[in-house]
Amino acid sequence: MNPEIDVRYAIGKKEANAYNTEELRDAFLTSSLMSKGEVVWIYTHYERFMLGSAVPTTDVLTLDTIEDQLKMPYFTARREVGIINIGGAGTVTVNGNEYHLAPEEALYIGKGNEQISFASDDANNPAKYYMNSAPAHHAYPCKKVGKDDANVLHLGSQETSNERDIKQLLINTVVDTCQLQMGLTRLHNGSVWNTMPAHQHDRRNEVYFYFDMNEENRVCHFMGEPHETRHLFVANEEAIISPPWSIHCGVGTGSYAFIWGMAGENLDYDDMDKFPPSALR
């Protein structure tokens, strides 16, 4: 099955400052993920980063190459892939090796694995595999990361409305990767700010995928330069592509969680430039 592909070209900060709301959404927001029975990919020109999803129901889905963008005989010929399951239980098979993923468990797939497929235990409660991919220069082993394997950070407080647990699933202290990093952040009841102070990564890009939201709720995601901020209202299972020059933080109208994925210059999780609320305009 050939995956659908949506290509997003790199946008500079001067251009973005002149965009209206619809233009910002077209450039930085995606709402095509988690389509049942399909593999979907968004190819960005920020670090050649890709975000995608696979939601198998009755049929097994396969991870096929994308001829126009990759020009490779199979998807991971020159790429690594990170997967986090946010749906029902399922199995990812890599070159004949099966990895059973419960909700919020992760799998790292190194480059050089030609045959990759996705299945759900229950078609009525399908697995929802959220995926990130980046170019890879070395073939690291595949590794499943269960809930108990994650490195968990507890940050924020009730007083500042940003008490949250950051589950570092695919980072260099847990699994060897070339440049890909992924994790899952879940806010505590009553907290709404997902990242504060706002920050940017000048040496890598980041993508936020928001989920576990009620249909009527939204997250107001802030982006742009610190002195020229913009905002986008994001619905359940939508993602924001954050360029290296852009800040990122968000506040929700109700409970939610999000998956963050990064790729770029280094693997230092704390490599970020922070901007307190007083520095934002």
UniProtKB/TrEMBL annotation:
CDD domains: cupin_KduI_C, cupin_KduI_N. It is an enzyme of class 5 (isomerase). The keyword Transmembrane does not apply. It catalyses: 5-dehydro-4-deoxy-D-glucuronate = 3-deoxy-D-glycero-2,5-hexodiulosonate. One of its GO terms (molecular function) is zinc ion binding. Zn(2+) binds at H199, H201, E206, H248. InterPro entries: KduI, KduI/IolB_isomerase, KduI_N, RmlC-like_jellyroll, RmlC_Cupin_sf. Coiled coil: none annotated. SUPFAM superfamilies: RmlC-like cupins. GO terms for biological process: D-galacturonate catabolic process; D-glucuronate catabolic process; pectin catabolic process. It comes from the Bacteria. Its cofactor is Zn(2+). Its EC number is 5.3.1.17. Pathway: Glycan metabolism; pectin degradation; 2-dehydro-3-deoxy-D-gluconate from pectin: step 4/5. Binds 1 zinc ion per subunit. Catalyzes the isomerization of 5-dehydro-4-deoxy-D-glucuronate to 3-deoxy-D-glycero-2,5-hexodiulosonate. NCBIfam families: PRK00924.1 (NF002091). Belongs to the KduI family. This is 4-deoxy-L-threo-5-hexosulose-uronate ketol-isomerase. It comes from Alteromonas stellipolaris. The gene is kduI.
